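Help: read this over?
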Amino acid sequence: MTIIADAAGRYFASFVVTTGQEETLPQVDSEVGIDLGLTHFAVLSDGRKVAAPKFLRRAARKLRRLQQGLSRKKKGSANQKKAVTKLARAHARVGDTRRDWQHKLSTQIIRENQAVYVEDLCVVGLGRTRLAKSVHDAGWASFTAMLEYKAGRYGRRFARVDRFFPSTRLCSACGLVNTKMALNLRAWDCACGAAHDRDVNAAKNIKAAGQADFNDRGAQVRPARVLAPRGEAVTHPDATRSTRSVEGISAL
């Protein structure tokens, strides 16, 4: 067993149990491509759009107030320690709320679709741009990780499409690739006559690219060993009892 203490003063016990064979969901005909973004957290190839909840933005005022209160406390004092814990708990609540929301959405998508395709976004690179705060608030990496391990657990297929694939500029109807497209252009018309919503078109192309790659490789879905999601402690069944303390706020 592993005991974890976080910066918010919370304790977690992590242990391993042996269960029966993983549940395999009944097969369905639908497959989906997902275009992740900031205005909409996710746009699906079937036209559905999931609004970005922006949990960190919504909590920004309270977090700023707690941070300012912490900065006024005397260094090393008991009041400073209390302020640190209070701020950490506020951040943890943001992370917990985001994680719960992502779990519900990812489970719904996996249950409804036999295969899920997403773009292999360079989150680290985007985190260095002026959109860094919004990118980290969105939590794309944790969401795609949930989709991946749940697909393996329930017998679904999951694949990432190359990040350099021109999903936005490619017409999903005729295959024409535009040379460039402004970021503020949310809808466009192709020369073939097709009218596109930028994000829905990208999701359709991601789905088509994922299906084409799967067919080219002739891959088969095999139940894989499901690892714990990143950020969760793990012990092996034969591991000796141990304790571990984690500093910092790992929930964000």
